Amino acid sequence: MTSSDTGSTGRSHDGTAPAIAVRLSVNDQVRRLELDPRTSLLDALREHLRLSGTKKGCDHGQCGACTVLINGRRVNSCLTLAVMHEDDEIVTVEGLGTPENMHPMQRAFVDSDGFQCGYCTPGQICSAVGMLAEVAAGWPSHATADVASPHIALTDEEIRERMSGNICRCAAYPNIVAAIRSTAEGGTP
Fold it and tell me: Is the separation of the CB atoms in 143 and 161 below 8 Å?
């Protein structure tokens, strides 16, 4: 693109921003992309890297279907730009496990029937993995009974509060809670 192709804002005449090189570490693989700098991480994962496990639900950060793990923390990928995560470790549901070698949380969702239509399930699973890491780190939630205690009791209320950013339109919530509890306890439902 030449300087005559863009206006004073650096945008081309068709309104798009010039593409920039982005290097993302996704599921332990470095991926190089040329992206419009306004591309959300969700769109980079789905449209450019063809990782379709991460779902586009509301595209406003309200449903949690797009939840991924970034440096071990759960993030709504629709609310962050891909260019912001060049030095971060991004894990999608595809990076947690495979059908032959499932992550314990994936296995618990299957065993507990923690899904119905399955659309929200990848975000639920990523969020649950991140949530259990938060509990292990001793981070309290609004529902934590004793915020001074080094051990957080993972009650159903605690799980529901911590997972409240992930919506299941099919209402599989009791089974989702059972899957999370099973994984936290290291057993099977």
Answer: yes
